[in-house]
Design goal:
This protein is an alpha+beta fold and 753 residues long. The protein has 3 domains: 207 residues, no CATH class; 300 residues, no CATH class; 193 residues, no CATH class. The chain has 24 helices and 26 strands. Strands 17, 18, 19, 20, 21, 22, 23 and 24 form an 8-stranded mixed β-sheet that branches.
Length: 753
C-alpha cells in the first residue's frame, strides 16, 4: 500500500491541467561530430516567434528556471522563489486565479502575479494584494496584477510568483542572440491541430534564425508536458527514461514482495497440513465435496488477508508521516475516494486467492483413507514445487540485495568523487540589493575575517553551469564544425577559491589587463585543436582576446552528464551572481557569524542567506539518495519475508523426516552429521537462487548505471557479499528447527500408534 501510494502520486504529477493533452514542452537536439545531445534549454525569443509563425500554436510562453528573490513591503523583507513567464502562461496552465485576469496578469514589465501564501505574508489576504506595490530586489517597485492559488504538491512547477517575460527580455541582452540558450519554452496547440504536423514544422525552426556549421544541425522537438516529470533523461538526442524507471522498479518490487508473502503462506499452510489432514479425511468421509473443501480453505485465506489489510491500514496511517519525510511527499490515504476501496477490495481478492489456491488444491486432494490411517505422504512433484517457490523467493530477494549494494555504491561514488575542485568548506551567497554596488567593500571586509582563505564571484553557482554559448570562435576554426561551449563569468581569485588545477598558464590577475583574457578547460582546448592553448587567440562575440590558462577538466554539472568544453571570462564588475568564499574547517561558525554581521551592515534590506557547495551538490542526486534508502528497506523486507518462507519449509521438512531422523540416530548417526544433512538440504535451493539471481541482477544494475556518464564498477565482491548475507540469514532461519529435529528422542520419533 505504501509503494502504491507513492507510485500513484508520481504518476499524478501534472495530470490536473485542463489543457494537458494540448500542452507541450520543447527541447533541442544538437547533432555534430557524429554525436547527438539534447536539452530543455532553448532560446529566449523562441516562444514569441513560434506563436507568430506557426498558426496551430494557440499559446506559447517562455519560462526561466525558478530562483529565490527578495521582496519587501514596509519593514517586512523575505525571499520568495519565482520565475519569469509569458503573457499566455495562466491561459495555458490550470493554476486558478483568486484575483486578476489570466490574459492580462503578465502583460506589463512591472506587473507581478503572486501566490495566496505570498499575498497573505505581505498583504494579509489576496483581496488586499491586488493593485498594491511590492519592492523587488530593492531596486524596482512592482504592482500585483493577480493572485493565484498555492500550487498543488503534484505540480512539477513550484513557484511563489511570476514576473512578465517582457521584463526578462529587457534585463538579459543575450536573449537577442539565437546562439545562446537558457530558459524553457512551452506551447499549447489548438484543439484541431495535428501534433505530428506541428512537430514537422518546428523541427528546423531554429535554423531560420542562426547559421549552423556544415555537418551540424539543431532540431526542435516536442514532448507532452504531463510526461516531462517522469520522462526527462536524454540519450542520443532523444528522451529515454527518467523517474519513470524508479516508478517501474518500485511497482515491480511491490508485486514481488506481495508475491513472496503469498508463497510463504503456501509453504506455511502446506507445512502445517498434517494438522489439518484428519479434519479433511473426516469431512470427506461424511460427504464433503472437494469444491466445498476448496471454498473453505480459500475463505480462510481471504479472511486472513482481510485482517492483514486492516492491520496494514493502521500501520500505513502510523508510518505515513515518516514515509513522507523520507520521500518529500505529502501522501495521505484517500479514504474518501471510492476507487481506493475498490482497489483495496481487488487487492484482497487477488492476494487471498493467490495465497490460498495451492493449499486449497493440495488439502482438498488428500486421500481420506490414507489420511485417517496416518499415512500422509507427499509426492515428489509437490516437494519440488515447494522448493521451487523458495528458489523464486530468494531469487527476488538476492536481486534486491545486489541492487541495494550497487545503488549505495553509486550514490557514494558521486558524492565523494574528486570533481576537480574542492567543494568542502566552500560557501556562497547571492549578490543582491546594495551588495551589487558594495561587493568590493564586502570582499575587503570579509577577507579580514580569521578563517577566510579566499573570495571570488561567478555568474552562476559552482555546482551547476547551465548556460551555453554558440558565439565562440578562433582563428582557423573549421566553418563546418559547430562551436557550442558552456560558459562562465567570474571574478578575480576564482581558481584559488575553488582550488581548481591549472594544466598550464595562469589565473586572472590584477597585475595584467585581463578584461579580454580567457580561461578554458582541457575539453575546450581539445575542441579548438590547440596543443598548447596558452597565448592563443579566442573570440567571444565582440570580445577578442587570448587564452591565459588551461584548467584541468572539472565537473560543473551532474555526474549524469559528460564534462563539456568550458570558456571562462573575467568580469569583476558583474552586477549579479554568487559570492564564493573558501573558509577553514575549524572556523566555519565564526566565519558565518562574521559574514552575517558584514552583510547586514552593507545590505540591511535583504536577509542573509548562504549555502555550502557540498550540500548543494548533493541535492543533484536527491532521487538517487531516495532510491538508495528505499531499496535498502525493501531489500530487508524481502529477505525477511523470504526467511519466513524458509522457516516454513524447515518446519515441513522436520515433520516429514521425523522417523527418518530417528532411524538414522538408532543406526549410529551423530547429531552433527544429521544437522549437516538437514542444513545442506535447505541450502540447495538457496544456492540455486543465487545462480539465477546474479546474472539477472547484473543486467538490471548495468542498465541502471548507464544513466550516469561517470559510474562505479560492478565488482565481483558485491555478489560474494550478497551470497554471504543470504546464506547466513538462511542458516540462522533454519538452524533452530534443524537442531530441534536432530536432537529429538529417536524412541519417540519412530514409535507408531
Amino acid at each position: 500500500m505504501m509503494i502504491i501510494l507513492w507510485v500513484v502520486d508520481e504518476r499524478s504529477v501534472d495530470g490536473f491541467h485542463t489543457n494537458g493533452k494540448y500542452l507541450y514542452q520543447l527541447y533541442e537536439a544538437q547533432y555534430s561530430d557524429g554525436k547527438a545531445e539534447a536539452s530543455y534549454l532553448t532560446q529566449g525569443l523562441l516562444a514569441d516567434e513560434l506563436k507568430k509563425k506557426i498558426p496551430e500554436i494557440k499559446y506559447a510562453s517562455g519560462l526561466e528556471q525558478v530562483h529565490p528573490y527578495t521582496f519587501q513591503v514596509g519593514d517586512k523583507a523575505l525571499k520568495m522563489d519565482g520565475s519569469y513567464a509569458g503573457e499566455d502562461f495562466f491561459q495555458m496552465f490550470s493554476y486558478p486565479l483568486l484575483r486578476g485576469i489570466a490574459s492580462s496578469a503578465l502583460n506589463t514589465p512591472t506587473g507581478i502575479a503572486i501566490s495566496r501564501k505570498m499575498a497573505e505574508v505581505f498583504f494579509s489576504s489576496p483581496e488586499n494584494a491586488i493593485g498594491k506595490n511590492i519592492r523587488f530586489e530593492n531596486k524596482e517597485d512592482l504592482q500585483v496584477t493577480a493572485v493565484f492559488e498555492d500550487l498543488p504538491a503534484n505540480s512539477s512547477q513550484q513557484f511563489d510568483f511570476l514576473r512578465s517575460w517582457r521584463a526578462y527580455v529587457e534585463q538579459n541582452t543575450w536573449v537577442s542572440n539565437w546562439g545562446s540558450s537558457s530558459p524553457y519554452t512551452l506551447v499549447q496547440l489548438g484543439e484541431s491541430a495535428d501534433p505530428a504536423r506541428v512537430a514537422a514544422k518546428i523541427r528546423g525552426f531554429v535554423d531560420l534564425y542562426k547559421t549552423e556549421a556544415r555537418g551540424a544541425r539543431t532540431e526542435l522537438l516536442m514532448q507532452p508536458f504531463p510526461e516531462k516529470y517522469l520522462h526527462s533523461t536524454f540519450k542520443n538526442g532523444h528522451i529515454d527514461g527518467g523517474r519513470i524507471e524508479y516508478v517501474r522498479i518500485f511497482s515491480f518490487i511491490a508485486v514481488f514482495i506481495l508475491l513472496i508473502a503469498c508463497i510463504n503462506f503456501m509453504n506455511l499452510a502446506t507445512a502445517s497440513s498434517a494438522k489439518r489432514a484428519k479434519e479433511v479425511g473426516i469431512r470427506k468421509v461424511i460427504g464433503a465435496f472437494r469444491a466445498a473443501l476448496m471454498g473453505q480453505f480459500l475463505g480462510e485465506a481471504l479472511l486472513l488477508t482481510f485482517f492483514a489489510i486492516i492491520v496494514a491500514i493502521a500501520l500505513v496511517l502510523l508510518m505515513l508521516p515518516t514515509f513522507n519525510g523520507l520521500t518529500g511527499k505529502q501522501l495521505t490515504l484517500p479514504v474518501g475516494q471510492p476507487v481506493f476501496w475498490v482497489g483495496l477490495l481487488g487487492l484482497l481478492a487477488l492476494t487471498g486467492t493467490v495465497a490460498g489456491s495451492y493449499p486449497a488444491l493440495f488439502l482438498s486432494s488428500l486421500n481420506p483413507i490414507g489420511v485417517l490411517k496416518g499415512n500422509l505422504k507427499f509426492s515428489s512433484g509437490s516437494i519440488f514445487l515447494r522448493k521451487s517457490l523458495v528458489v523464486f523467493q530468494f531469487t527476488l530477494a538476492v536481486m534486491l540485495i545486489v541492487g541495494m549494494i550497487i545503488i549505495y555504491q553509486q550514490v557514494e561514488y558521486v558524492q565523494h568523487k574528486n570533481l576537480g575542485y574542492d567543494r568542502d568548506n566552500l560557501l556562497y551567497l547571492p549578490i543582491e540589493g546594495d551588495l551589487i554596488k558594495k561587493y568590493d567593500v564586502f570582499k575587503d571586509e570579509a577577507d579580514k575575517l580569521p578563517g577566510v582563505l579566499a573570495i571570488s564571484k561567478m555568474k552562476e553557482s559552482p555546482t551547476v553551469i547551465a548556460h551555453t554559448n554558440g558565439d565562440i570562435s578562433w582563428p582557423g576554426k573549421d566553418p563546418n564544425q559547430p562551436a557550442v561551449f558552456s560558459d562562465a563569468v567570474v571574478g578575480y581569485d576564482y581558481v584559488k577559491t575553488l582550488r581548481l588545477q591549472l594544466a598550464s598558464g595562469r589565473d586572472f590577475s590584477r597585475d595584467f589587463n585581463d578584461s579580454v583574457s580567457f580561461l578554458v578547460n582541457e575539453m575546450a582546448a581539445q575542441k579548438m585543436g590547440y596543443k598548447d592553448a596558452v597565448g592563443q587567440p579566442l573570440y567571444w562575440g565582440s570580445r577578442h582576446g587570448k587564452i591565459i590558462g588551461v584548467l584541468k577538466d572539472f565537473h560543473f554539472n551532474s555526474m549524469h552528464q559528460n564534462i563539456e568544453p568550458l570558456v571562462i571570462r573575467l568580469a569583476e564588475d558583474q552586477r549579479w551572481g554568487t559570492i564564493l568564499i573558501r573558509v577553514k574547517n575549524d572556523n566555519i561558525k565564526e566565519v558565518v557569524s562574521g559574514l552575517e554581521r558584514i552583510y547586514r551592515e552593507l545590505n540591511p534590506n535583504f536577509s542573509f542567506t548562504y549555502a555550502f557547495a557540498d550540500q548543494e551538490y548533493n541535492k543533484l542526486y536527491k532521487s538517487e539518495q531516495l532510491v538508495s534508502k528505499l531499496s535498502g528497506y525493501f531489500a530487508f523486507l524481502a529477505i525477511f519475508i523470504s526467511s519466513l518462507g524458509l522457516f516454513g519449509l524447515a518446519i515441513f521438512t522436520g515433520e516429514q523426516r521425523t522417523k527418518e531422523i530417528g532411524i538414522r540416530k538408532v543406526l549410529g548417526s551423530s547429531v552433527p552429521r544429521i544437522l549437516f544433512l538437514l542444513l545442506s538440504e535447505f541450502l540447495k535451493p538457496i544456492v540455486l537462487a543465487l545462480l539465477i539471481a546474479f546474472p539477472l541482477a547484473w543486467f538490471m544494475m548495468y542498465r541502471w548505471l548507464q544513466d550516469f556518464a561517470y559510474r562505479t564498477a560492478i565488482d565481483w565482491w558485491v555478489f560474494v557479499l550478497a551470497a554471504v548475507i543470504t546464506i547466513v540469514i538462511a542458516l540462522l532461519t533454519v538452524s533452530y528447527q534443524s537442531i530441534k529435529a536432530a536432537l529429538m528422542n529417536p524412541v519417540k520419533s519412530i514409535r507408531t500408534q
